Amino acid sequence: xxxxxxxxxxxxxxxxxxxxxxxxxxxxxxxxxxxxxxxxxxxxxxxxxxxxxxxxxxxxxxxxxxxxxxxxxxxxxxxxxxxxxxxxxxxxxxxxxxxxxxxxxxxxxxxxxxxxxxxxxxxxxxxxxxxxxxxxxxxxxxxxxxxxxxxxxxxxxxxxxxxxxxxxxxxxxxxxxxxxxxxxxxxxxxxxxxxxxxxxxxxxxxxxxxxxxxxxxxxxxxxxxxxxxxxxxxxxxxxxxxxxxxxxxxxxxxxxxxxxxxxxxxxxxxxxxxxxxxxxxxxxxxxxxxxxxxxxxxxxxxxxxxxxxxxxxxxxxxxxxxxxxxxxxxxxxxxxxxxxxxxxxxxxxxxxxxxxxxxxxxxxxxxxxxxxxxxxxxxxxxxxxxxxxxxxxxxxxxxxxxxxxxxxxxxxxxxxxxxxxxxxxxxxxxxxxxxxxxxxxxxxxxxxxxxxxxxxxxxxxxxxxxxxxxxxxxxxxxxxxxxxxxxxxxxxxxxxxxxxxxxxxxxxxxxxxxxxxxxxxxxxxxxxxxxxxxxxxxxxxxxxxxxxxxxx
Length: 552
Prior knowledge:
This protein is of the alpha+beta class. The chain has three domains: 13-302, Electron Transport, Fmn-binding Protein, Chain A (Pnp Oxidase, Chain A), CATH 2.30.110; 310-403, Translation factors (Elongation Factor Tu (Ef-tu), domain 3, Beta Barrel); 420-547, Nucleotide-binding domain of ferredoxin-NADP reductase (FNR) module (Rossmann fold, 3-Layer(aba) Sandwich), CATH 3.40.50.80. It is built from ten helices and 29 strands. Strands 9, 10, 11, 12, 13, 14, 15 and 16 form an eight-stranded antiparallel beta sheet that branches. The protein is globular and about 70 Å long. 43% of the residues are buried.
Protein backbone atom coordinates (compact mmCIF):
# COMPACT_ATOMS: atom_id res chain seq x y z
CA UNK A 1 0.00 0.00 0.00
CA UNK A 2 1.40 3.39 -1.05
CA UNK A 3 2.02 5.60 1.98
CA UNK A 4 1.95 9.38 2.21
CA UNK A 5 5.36 10.99 1.78
CA UNK A 6 6.49 13.67 4.22
CA UNK A 7 6.00 16.48 1.68
CA UNK A 8 2.84 15.05 0.13
CA UNK A 9 -0.61 16.52 0.72
CA UNK A 10 -3.30 14.20 2.09
CA UNK A 11 -5.66 15.79 -0.45
CA UNK A 12 -5.91 15.33 -4.20
CA UNK A 13 -6.38 18.18 -6.69
CA UNK A 14 -10.19 18.19 -6.47
CA UNK A 15 -10.22 18.49 -2.68
CA UNK A 16 -7.52 21.15 -2.78
CA UNK A 17 -9.50 23.11 -5.35
CA UNK A 18 -12.65 23.16 -3.24
CA UNK A 19 -10.67 24.15 -0.14
CA UNK A 20 -9.08 27.03 -2.06
CA UNK A 21 -12.43 28.12 -3.49
CA UNK A 22 -13.94 28.29 0.00
CA UNK A 23 -10.96 29.96 1.66
CA UNK A 24 -9.86 27.19 4.04
CA UNK A 25 -6.87 25.75 2.20
CA UNK A 26 -4.13 27.40 4.25
CA UNK A 27 -5.70 26.33 7.54
CA UNK A 28 -6.78 22.78 6.78
CA UNK A 29 -3.63 21.52 5.03
CA UNK A 30 -1.23 21.64 8.02
CA UNK A 31 -3.92 20.30 10.32
CA UNK A 32 -4.85 17.41 8.02
CA UNK A 33 -1.21 16.40 7.67
CA UNK A 34 -1.31 15.61 11.37
CA UNK A 35 -4.69 13.88 11.66
CA UNK A 36 -4.88 11.97 8.36
CA UNK A 37 -2.75 8.91 9.05
CA UNK A 38 -1.44 6.12 6.80
CA UNK A 39 -2.56 3.54 9.36
CA UNK A 40 -5.14 2.92 12.06
CA UNK A 41 -4.32 4.09 15.58
CA UNK A 42 -4.85 1.63 18.41
CA UNK A 43 -7.89 3.63 19.47
CA UNK A 44 -9.47 3.23 16.03
CA UNK A 45 -8.48 -0.45 15.81
CA UNK A 46 -10.39 -1.04 19.04
CA UNK A 47 -13.27 1.05 17.69
CA UNK A 48 -13.75 -1.08 14.57
CA UNK A 49 -13.68 -4.28 16.60
CA UNK A 50 -16.83 -3.35 18.50
CA UNK A 51 -18.96 -2.14 15.58
CA UNK A 52 -21.98 -4.17 14.34
CA UNK A 53 -21.96 -2.57 10.87
CA UNK A 54 -19.79 -0.70 8.39
CA UNK A 55 -20.71 1.64 5.54
CA UNK A 56 -18.86 0.66 2.37
CA UNK A 57 -18.01 2.72 -0.71
CA UNK A 58 -16.77 0.87 -3.82
CA UNK A 59 -17.28 0.77 -7.60
CA UNK A 60 -19.19 -1.70 -9.71
CA UNK A 61 -17.83 -3.29 -12.90
CA UNK A 62 -18.72 -0.17 -14.91
CA UNK A 63 -16.93 2.15 -12.49
CA UNK A 64 -20.03 3.60 -10.80
CA UNK A 65 -19.54 4.47 -7.12
CA UNK A 66 -21.93 2.58 -4.85
CA UNK A 67 -22.69 2.82 -1.13
CA UNK A 68 -23.68 -0.21 0.90
CA UNK A 69 -23.73 -1.59 4.41
CA UNK A 70 -22.20 -4.77 5.85
CA UNK A 71 -23.47 -5.95 9.24
CA UNK A 72 -22.76 -8.85 11.58
CA UNK A 73 -21.95 -9.50 15.21
CA UNK A 74 -19.42 -7.05 16.73
CA UNK A 75 -15.95 -8.33 16.03
CA UNK A 76 -16.69 -9.10 12.37
CA UNK A 77 -14.27 -6.29 11.51
CA UNK A 78 -10.88 -6.21 13.15
CA UNK A 79 -7.40 -4.86 12.53
CA UNK A 80 -4.62 -7.48 12.85
CA UNK A 81 -2.06 -4.69 12.51
CA UNK A 82 -2.26 -0.90 11.99
CA UNK A 83 -2.02 -1.22 8.20
CA UNK A 84 -4.89 -3.68 7.72
CA UNK A 85 -8.61 -3.96 8.36
CA UNK A 86 -10.27 -7.37 7.92
CA UNK A 87 -14.01 -7.60 7.34
CA UNK A 88 -15.74 -10.97 7.77
CA UNK A 89 -18.87 -10.13 5.78
CA UNK A 90 -19.82 -9.81 2.13
CA UNK A 91 -22.68 -8.17 0.20
CA UNK A 92 -25.70 -10.34 -0.51
CA UNK A 93 -26.54 -11.53 -4.03
CA UNK A 94 -29.02 -8.72 -4.69
CA UNK A 95 -26.90 -5.95 -3.25
CA UNK A 96 -25.60 -3.30 -5.63
CA UNK A 97 -22.11 -4.11 -4.32
CA UNK A 98 -22.43 -7.86 -4.98
CA UNK A 99 -19.80 -7.81 -7.75
CA UNK A 100 -17.52 -5.28 -6.05
CA UNK A 101 -14.82 -5.56 -3.35
CA UNK A 102 -12.43 -7.55 -5.50
CA UNK A 103 -8.69 -7.71 -4.96
CA UNK A 104 -7.07 -4.43 -6.00
CA UNK A 105 -10.34 -2.45 -5.82
CA UNK A 106 -10.46 0.97 -4.17
CA UNK A 107 -12.69 0.88 -1.08
CA UNK A 108 -13.77 3.51 1.42
CA UNK A 109 -15.12 2.48 4.81
CA UNK A 110 -16.99 4.53 7.35
CA UNK A 111 -17.08 3.13 10.86
CA UNK A 112 -19.84 4.92 12.74
CA UNK A 113 -21.25 4.31 16.21
CA UNK A 114 -24.63 6.02 16.18
CA UNK A 115 -25.34 5.87 19.90
CA UNK A 116 -22.03 7.58 20.80
CA UNK A 117 -21.94 9.66 17.59
CA UNK A 118 -18.34 8.65 16.90
CA UNK A 119 -17.04 7.94 13.42
CA UNK A 120 -13.82 7.08 11.63
CA UNK A 121 -13.08 7.01 7.91
CA UNK A 122 -10.56 4.75 6.26
CA UNK A 123 -9.76 4.15 2.61
CA UNK A 124 -7.40 1.89 0.76
CA UNK A 125 -7.36 -1.10 -1.56
CA UNK A 126 -8.57 -4.66 -1.17
CA UNK A 127 -5.49 -6.85 -0.63
CA UNK A 128 -7.35 -10.16 -0.30
CA UNK A 129 -10.88 -11.39 -1.03
CA UNK A 130 -12.55 -14.61 0.06
CA UNK A 131 -16.03 -16.04 0.27
CA UNK A 132 -16.47 -14.73 3.80
CA UNK A 133 -15.12 -11.22 3.36
CA UNK A 134 -12.08 -9.17 2.42
CA UNK A 135 -8.97 -7.46 3.75
CA UNK A 136 -8.30 -3.75 3.24
CA UNK A 137 -4.81 -2.31 3.04
CA UNK A 138 -5.06 1.07 4.76
CA UNK A 139 -4.16 4.13 2.70
CA UNK A 140 -5.63 6.89 4.85
CA UNK A 141 -7.51 6.94 8.18
CA UNK A 142 -8.90 9.81 10.23
CA UNK A 143 -11.66 10.61 12.70
CA UNK A 144 -14.63 12.88 12.12
CA UNK A 145 -16.61 15.23 14.35
CA UNK A 146 -20.06 14.13 15.62
CA UNK A 147 -21.98 16.91 13.87
CA UNK A 148 -25.37 15.96 12.36
CA UNK A 149 -25.28 12.32 13.56
CA UNK A 150 -28.70 11.24 14.79
CA UNK A 151 -28.25 9.22 17.95
CA UNK A 152 -29.59 5.65 17.70
CA UNK A 153 -29.00 2.46 19.66
CA UNK A 154 -28.72 -0.72 17.60
CA UNK A 155 -30.64 -3.93 18.31
CA UNK A 156 -30.49 -7.39 16.78
CA UNK A 157 -33.11 -7.78 14.07
CA UNK A 158 -35.67 -10.61 13.86
CA UNK A 159 -34.60 -14.03 12.64
CA UNK A 160 -34.75 -14.26 8.85
CA UNK A 161 -35.52 -17.38 6.86
CA UNK A 162 -34.88 -15.56 3.61
CA UNK A 163 -34.37 -12.04 2.29
CA UNK A 164 -36.78 -10.85 -0.42
CA UNK A 165 -35.19 -10.43 -3.83
CA UNK A 166 -33.81 -7.00 -4.60
CA UNK A 167 -35.81 -4.78 -6.91
CA UNK A 168 -34.21 -2.41 -9.42
CA UNK A 169 -35.75 0.83 -10.63
CA UNK A 170 -34.92 3.58 -13.09
CA UNK A 171 -37.40 5.94 -11.48
CA UNK A 172 -38.40 6.54 -7.88
CA UNK A 173 -41.98 5.63 -7.05
CA UNK A 174 -44.06 7.85 -4.79
CA UNK A 175 -43.41 5.50 -1.86
CA UNK A 176 -39.64 5.56 -2.43
CA UNK A 177 -39.67 9.34 -2.68
CA UNK A 178 -41.58 9.44 0.59
CA UNK A 179 -39.01 7.11 2.17
CA UNK A 180 -36.18 9.41 1.08
CA UNK A 181 -37.91 12.59 2.25
CA UNK A 182 -38.60 11.08 5.69
CA UNK A 183 -34.90 10.28 6.20
CA UNK A 184 -32.71 12.13 8.68
CA UNK A 185 -29.60 10.21 7.62
CA UNK A 186 -28.00 8.91 4.45
CA UNK A 187 -24.54 7.91 3.26
CA UNK A 188 -22.72 8.92 0.10
CA UNK A 189 -19.99 7.13 -1.85
CA UNK A 190 -17.66 9.07 -4.13
CA UNK A 191 -14.16 8.66 -5.45
CA UNK A 192 -11.32 9.73 -7.67
CA UNK A 193 -8.25 7.93 -8.93
CA UNK A 194 -5.71 9.97 -10.85
CA UNK A 195 -2.52 8.95 -12.58
CA UNK A 196 0.17 7.32 -10.50
CA UNK A 197 0.05 6.24 -6.88
CA UNK A 198 -1.23 8.57 -4.18
CA UNK A 199 -3.05 7.59 -0.96
CA UNK A 200 -5.31 10.61 -1.49
CA UNK A 201 -6.81 8.74 -4.45
CA UNK A 202 -9.53 6.16 -3.94
CA UNK A 203 -13.03 5.84 -2.56
CA UNK A 204 -14.71 7.70 0.27
CA UNK A 205 -17.76 6.77 2.36
CA UNK A 206 -19.34 9.75 4.09
CA UNK A 207 -22.29 10.40 6.41
CA UNK A 208 -24.91 13.09 5.85
CA UNK A 209 -27.53 14.04 8.42
CA UNK A 210 -30.14 16.66 9.18
CA UNK A 211 -33.73 17.11 10.22
CA UNK A 212 -36.18 14.69 8.61
CA UNK A 213 -36.96 16.11 5.17
CA UNK A 214 -33.52 17.60 4.57
CA UNK A 215 -33.33 15.54 1.35
CA UNK A 216 -36.01 16.52 -1.16
CA UNK A 217 -37.19 14.56 -4.19
CA UNK A 218 -37.90 17.12 -6.89
CA UNK A 219 -39.27 14.46 -9.22
CA UNK A 220 -38.88 10.74 -9.94
CA UNK A 221 -35.19 11.06 -10.88
CA UNK A 222 -33.87 14.17 -9.10
CA UNK A 223 -32.92 14.75 -5.46
CA UNK A 224 -31.45 17.80 -3.75
CA UNK A 225 -29.80 18.05 -0.36
CA UNK A 226 -27.81 20.68 1.58
CA UNK A 227 -24.12 20.63 2.35
CA UNK A 228 -23.59 21.90 5.88
CA UNK A 229 -20.45 23.12 7.65
CA UNK A 230 -18.09 20.23 8.37
CA UNK A 231 -14.43 19.43 8.88
CA UNK A 232 -13.31 21.43 5.81
CA UNK A 233 -11.62 18.40 4.22
CA UNK A 234 -14.25 18.42 1.45
CA UNK A 235 -13.50 14.81 0.51
CA UNK A 236 -16.93 14.26 -1.04
CA UNK A 237 -17.19 17.57 -2.88
CA UNK A 238 -13.58 17.30 -4.03
CA UNK A 239 -14.33 13.90 -5.53
CA UNK A 240 -17.50 15.15 -7.22
CA UNK A 241 -15.66 18.05 -8.84
CA UNK A 242 -13.43 15.55 -10.65
CA UNK A 243 -15.93 12.68 -11.03
CA UNK A 244 -19.63 13.57 -10.60
CA UNK A 245 -20.70 9.95 -10.28
CA UNK A 246 -21.90 9.05 -6.78
CA UNK A 247 -23.79 6.42 -4.82
CA UNK A 248 -26.31 7.12 -2.05
CA UNK A 249 -27.56 4.77 0.66
CA UNK A 250 -30.80 5.29 2.58
CA UNK A 251 -31.80 3.04 5.47
CA UNK A 252 -35.14 2.28 7.10
CA UNK A 253 -33.85 1.91 10.65
CA UNK A 254 -37.14 0.40 11.85
CA UNK A 255 -37.54 -2.34 9.21
CA UNK A 256 -34.00 -2.89 7.97
CA UNK A 257 -34.75 -1.84 4.38
CA UNK A 258 -31.91 -0.53 2.21
CA UNK A 259 -32.19 1.76 -0.80
CA UNK A 260 -29.04 2.14 -2.91
CA UNK A 261 -28.96 4.84 -5.57
CA UNK A 262 -26.38 5.45 -8.27
CA UNK A 263 -26.25 8.58 -10.39
CA UNK A 264 -24.49 11.87 -10.98
CA UNK A 265 -24.20 14.78 -8.57
CA UNK A 266 -23.63 18.46 -9.22
CA UNK A 267 -22.76 21.11 -6.67
CA UNK A 268 -24.44 24.52 -6.75
CA UNK A 269 -22.11 26.72 -4.77
CA UNK A 270 -24.29 29.75 -4.12
CA UNK A 271 -28.01 30.00 -4.74
CA UNK A 272 -30.96 31.65 -2.98
CA UNK A 273 -32.57 28.18 -2.92
CA UNK A 274 -30.19 27.10 -0.15
CA UNK A 275 -32.06 29.43 2.25
CA UNK A 276 -34.72 26.70 2.39
CA UNK A 277 -32.27 24.76 4.59
CA UNK A 278 -31.09 26.79 7.63
CA UNK A 279 -27.33 26.57 7.86
CA UNK A 280 -26.80 25.21 4.34
CA UNK A 281 -23.55 26.39 2.77
CA UNK A 282 -24.39 25.06 -0.72
CA UNK A 283 -26.71 22.53 -2.44
CA UNK A 284 -26.03 19.23 -4.14
CA UNK A 285 -28.36 17.94 -6.86
CA UNK A 286 -28.43 14.22 -7.67
CA UNK A 287 -29.69 12.76 -10.95
CA UNK A 288 -30.68 9.10 -10.63
CA UNK A 289 -29.32 6.39 -12.91
CA UNK A 290 -30.51 3.31 -11.00
CA UNK A 291 -32.05 2.40 -7.64
CA UNK A 292 -31.69 -0.97 -5.85
CA UNK A 293 -34.36 -1.63 -3.23
CA UNK A 294 -33.76 -4.36 -0.63
CA UNK A 295 -36.46 -5.15 1.91
CA UNK A 296 -35.42 -6.31 5.40
CA UNK A 297 -31.85 -6.83 4.18
CA UNK A 298 -30.20 -5.42 7.31
CA UNK A 299 -29.95 -7.86 10.27
CA UNK A 300 -30.10 -4.92 12.67
CA UNK A 301 -32.79 -2.57 13.91
CA UNK A 302 -32.39 0.78 15.65
CA UNK A 303 -34.39 2.55 18.30
CA UNK A 304 -36.14 5.76 17.37
CA UNK A 305 -33.86 8.82 17.18
CA UNK A 306 -33.99 11.22 20.05
CA UNK A 307 -34.99 8.59 22.61
CA UNK A 308 -32.25 9.93 24.87
CA UNK A 309 -32.97 13.63 24.34
CA UNK A 310 -33.42 15.54 27.60
CA UNK A 311 -34.90 18.95 28.27
CA UNK A 312 -32.54 21.17 30.25
CA UNK A 313 -33.25 24.38 32.13
CA UNK A 314 -30.72 27.21 32.22
CA UNK A 315 -30.14 28.08 35.88
CA UNK A 316 -27.12 30.39 35.61
CA UNK A 317 -25.44 32.56 32.97
CA UNK A 318 -22.24 34.46 33.69
CA UNK A 319 -19.61 36.38 31.73
CA UNK A 320 -16.14 34.79 31.94
CA UNK A 321 -14.25 37.27 29.76
CA UNK A 322 -14.87 39.95 27.13
CA UNK A 323 -16.44 37.50 24.67
CA UNK A 324 -16.93 34.23 26.59
CA UNK A 325 -19.80 33.26 28.91
CA UNK A 326 -20.72 30.15 30.89
CA UNK A 327 -24.15 28.55 30.86
CA UNK A 328 -25.20 26.14 33.63
CA UNK A 329 -28.05 23.72 33.09
CA UNK A 330 -30.00 21.23 35.16
CA UNK A 331 -32.73 18.81 34.13
CA UNK A 332 -36.16 20.32 33.60
CA UNK A 333 -37.91 17.44 35.37
CA UNK A 334 -35.49 17.17 38.29
CA UNK A 335 -34.37 13.66 37.32
CA UNK A 336 -30.64 12.84 37.43
CA UNK A 337 -28.53 13.81 34.45
CA UNK A 338 -26.29 11.36 32.64
CA UNK A 339 -22.77 11.46 34.02
CA UNK A 340 -19.91 12.67 31.85
CA UNK A 341 -16.16 12.28 31.73
CA UNK A 342 -13.81 15.24 31.81
CA UNK A 343 -13.13 16.39 28.24
CA UNK A 344 -16.47 15.33 26.76
CA UNK A 345 -18.94 17.59 24.97
CA UNK A 346 -22.67 18.27 25.30
CA UNK A 347 -24.77 18.16 22.09
CA UNK A 348 -27.53 20.78 22.36
CA UNK A 349 -30.42 21.85 20.15
CA UNK A 350 -31.91 25.32 20.10
CA UNK A 351 -35.19 26.62 18.69
CA UNK A 352 -33.98 29.86 17.11
CA UNK A 353 -36.65 32.27 15.83
CA UNK A 354 -36.70 32.39 12.06
CA UNK A 355 -35.18 28.92 11.68
CA UNK A 356 -37.43 26.20 10.29
CA UNK A 357 -35.84 23.44 12.38
CA UNK A 358 -33.86 23.15 15.61
CA UNK A 359 -30.18 24.04 15.26
CA UNK A 360 -27.66 21.73 16.92
CA UNK A 361 -24.15 22.32 18.21
CA UNK A 362 -21.61 20.45 20.38
CA UNK A 363 -19.99 22.40 23.21
CA UNK A 364 -17.33 21.08 25.55
CA UNK A 365 -18.38 20.65 29.16
CA UNK A 366 -16.21 22.93 31.27
CA UNK A 367 -17.36 21.98 34.78
CA UNK A 368 -16.42 19.21 37.15
CA UNK A 369 -17.78 15.71 36.43
CA UNK A 370 -18.36 15.46 40.20
CA UNK A 371 -20.81 18.37 40.12
CA UNK A 372 -23.71 15.97 39.72
CA UNK A 373 -27.01 17.28 38.48
CA UNK A 374 -25.49 20.16 36.49
CA UNK A 375 -23.89 20.69 33.10
CA UNK A 376 -21.79 23.75 32.34
CA UNK A 377 -20.72 24.87 28.88
CA UNK A 378 -18.50 27.88 28.25
CA UNK A 379 -19.04 29.50 24.86
CA UNK A 380 -17.28 32.21 22.88
CA UNK A 381 -19.52 34.67 21.07
CA UNK A 382 -18.54 34.43 17.42
CA UNK A 383 -19.48 37.55 15.39
CA UNK A 384 -20.95 35.37 12.61
CA UNK A 385 -22.02 32.47 14.82
CA UNK A 386 -25.77 32.02 14.68
CA UNK A 387 -25.95 29.76 17.74
CA UNK A 388 -23.29 31.44 19.88
CA UNK A 389 -24.83 34.86 19.26
CA UNK A 390 -28.26 33.53 20.18
CA UNK A 391 -26.92 31.97 23.39
CA UNK A 392 -25.15 35.19 24.42
CA UNK A 393 -27.76 37.69 23.31
CA UNK A 394 -31.14 35.98 23.70
CA UNK A 395 -31.03 32.97 26.03
CA UNK A 396 -31.83 33.90 29.63
CA UNK A 397 -32.04 32.05 32.94
CA UNK A 398 -35.11 29.82 33.03
CA UNK A 399 -35.11 29.03 29.33
CA UNK A 400 -35.49 25.40 28.20
CA UNK A 401 -33.45 23.66 25.52
CA UNK A 402 -32.90 20.08 24.37
CA UNK A 403 -29.71 18.08 24.74
CA UNK A 404 -28.36 14.63 24.01
CA UNK A 405 -26.17 12.75 26.49
CA UNK A 406 -22.56 13.89 26.73
CA UNK A 407 -20.16 12.19 24.34
CA UNK A 408 -16.65 12.22 22.94
CA UNK A 409 -13.39 10.42 23.59
CA UNK A 410 -11.07 13.37 24.33
CA UNK A 411 -10.66 12.23 27.93
CA UNK A 412 -7.55 11.79 30.08
CA UNK A 413 -6.30 8.28 30.66
CA UNK A 414 -4.99 7.09 34.00
CA UNK A 415 -2.12 5.14 32.51
CA UNK A 416 1.50 6.17 33.01
CA UNK A 417 3.40 8.00 35.72
CA UNK A 418 4.80 11.02 33.91
CA UNK A 419 3.45 14.59 33.84
CA UNK A 420 0.08 15.37 32.30
CA UNK A 421 0.25 18.54 30.21
CA UNK A 422 -2.97 20.38 29.32
CA UNK A 423 -2.31 22.95 26.58
CA UNK A 424 -4.92 25.31 25.15
CA UNK A 425 -5.38 28.51 23.21
CA UNK A 426 -8.39 30.82 23.42
CA UNK A 427 -11.68 29.14 24.25
CA UNK A 428 -9.96 25.77 23.70
CA UNK A 429 -9.38 25.67 27.45
CA UNK A 430 -12.97 24.57 28.17
CA UNK A 431 -12.53 20.75 28.09
CA UNK A 432 -9.15 21.12 29.78
CA UNK A 433 -10.66 23.00 32.72
CA UNK A 434 -12.99 20.03 33.22
CA UNK A 435 -9.93 17.75 33.11
CA UNK A 436 -8.18 19.99 35.64
CA UNK A 437 -11.08 19.54 38.06
CA UNK A 438 -10.55 15.77 37.86
CA UNK A 439 -6.76 15.78 37.89
CA UNK A 440 -6.48 18.30 40.73
CA UNK A 441 -8.16 15.79 43.00
CA UNK A 442 -6.12 12.84 41.75
CA UNK A 443 -4.13 11.16 44.51
CA UNK A 444 -1.68 9.46 42.17
CA UNK A 445 0.76 12.33 42.59
CA UNK A 446 1.32 12.79 38.84
CA UNK A 447 2.44 16.33 38.05
CA UNK A 448 -0.11 18.34 36.08
CA UNK A 449 0.70 21.38 33.95
CA UNK A 450 -2.01 23.72 32.72
CA UNK A 451 -0.53 25.87 29.95
CA UNK A 452 -2.84 28.40 28.32
CA UNK A 453 -2.45 31.05 25.64
CA UNK A 454 -4.72 34.10 25.46
CA UNK A 455 -4.62 37.53 23.86
CA UNK A 456 -4.71 39.45 27.15
CA UNK A 457 -6.37 39.55 30.54
CA UNK A 458 -9.72 40.69 29.11
CA UNK A 459 -9.79 37.55 26.93
CA UNK A 460 -8.78 35.02 29.59
CA UNK A 461 -11.91 33.07 30.66
CA UNK A 462 -12.16 31.00 33.86
CA UNK A 463 -8.87 32.46 35.13
CA UNK A 464 -9.87 32.65 38.82
CA UNK A 465 -11.33 29.14 38.82
CA UNK A 466 -8.15 27.68 37.34
CA UNK A 467 -6.04 29.54 39.90
CA UNK A 468 -8.17 28.23 42.78
CA UNK A 469 -7.74 24.65 41.60
CA UNK A 470 -3.98 25.12 41.32
CA UNK A 471 -3.70 26.76 44.74
CA UNK A 472 -5.50 23.83 46.35
CA UNK A 473 -3.48 21.16 44.56
CA UNK A 474 0.30 20.88 45.08
CA UNK A 475 0.66 18.72 41.94
CA UNK A 476 -0.82 21.40 39.62
CA UNK A 477 1.39 23.98 37.89
CA UNK A 478 0.16 26.92 35.80
CA UNK A 479 1.70 28.88 32.97
CA UNK A 480 -0.15 31.54 30.98
CA UNK A 481 1.15 33.25 27.85
CA UNK A 482 -0.43 36.51 26.64
CA UNK A 483 0.25 37.37 23.01
CA UNK A 484 -0.74 41.05 23.41
CA UNK A 485 -0.91 41.91 27.12
CA UNK A 486 -2.65 45.10 28.18
CA UNK A 487 -0.86 47.76 30.21
CA UNK A 488 -2.89 46.63 33.21
CA UNK A 489 -1.80 42.98 32.85
CA UNK A 490 0.98 42.19 35.34
CA UNK A 491 3.85 39.91 34.36
CA UNK A 492 4.38 37.03 36.83
CA UNK A 493 0.99 37.72 38.43
CA UNK A 494 -1.54 37.69 35.56
CA UNK A 495 0.68 35.91 33.04
CA UNK A 496 4.10 34.27 33.00
CA UNK A 497 5.35 34.88 29.46
CA UNK A 498 4.65 37.07 26.46
CA UNK A 499 4.04 35.49 23.06
CA UNK A 500 2.44 32.31 21.82
CA UNK A 501 2.77 28.77 23.06
CA UNK A 502 5.27 26.62 21.20
CA UNK A 503 7.24 23.44 21.81
CA UNK A 504 10.29 25.36 23.08
CA UNK A 505 8.18 26.87 25.85
CA UNK A 506 6.66 23.50 26.75
CA UNK A 507 10.02 21.75 26.75
CA UNK A 508 11.46 24.43 29.03
CA UNK A 509 8.62 23.87 31.49
CA UNK A 510 8.31 20.09 31.17
CA UNK A 511 11.56 18.47 30.03
CA UNK A 512 10.28 14.99 30.93
CA UNK A 513 10.15 12.57 27.97
CA UNK A 514 7.26 10.57 29.43
CA UNK A 515 4.77 13.46 29.56
CA UNK A 516 1.28 13.01 28.09
CA UNK A 517 -0.06 16.02 26.19
CA UNK A 518 -3.70 17.07 25.70
CA UNK A 519 -4.02 19.94 23.23
CA UNK A 520 -7.14 21.93 22.37
CA UNK A 521 -7.43 24.93 20.09
CA UNK A 522 -7.89 25.99 16.50
CA UNK A 523 -6.66 23.71 13.68
CA UNK A 524 -3.76 26.04 12.92
CA UNK A 525 -2.61 26.12 16.54
CA UNK A 526 -2.82 22.35 16.91
CA UNK A 527 -1.12 21.46 13.65
CA UNK A 528 1.91 23.61 14.31
CA UNK A 529 2.27 22.67 17.97
CA UNK A 530 1.82 18.93 17.44
CA UNK A 531 4.45 18.94 14.70
CA UNK A 532 6.87 20.87 16.92
CA UNK A 533 6.35 18.42 19.80
CA UNK A 534 6.93 15.41 17.57
CA UNK A 535 10.03 17.04 16.07
CA UNK A 536 11.33 17.57 19.61
CA UNK A 537 11.00 13.85 20.35
CA UNK A 538 7.54 13.49 21.91
CA UNK A 539 5.99 10.21 20.76
CA UNK A 540 2.86 10.63 18.62
CA UNK A 541 0.82 8.35 20.88
CA UNK A 542 1.49 10.72 23.80
CA UNK A 543 -0.26 13.62 22.06
CA UNK A 544 -4.06 13.83 21.98
CA UNK A 545 -5.89 16.69 20.34
CA UNK A 546 -9.31 18.29 20.11
CA UNK A 547 -10.04 21.05 17.66
CA UNK A 548 -12.74 23.67 17.40
CA UNK A 549 -13.72 26.34 14.95
CA UNK A 550 -16.38 29.03 14.53
CA UNK A 551 -19.72 27.78 13.27
CA UNK A 552 -22.51 29.78 11.69
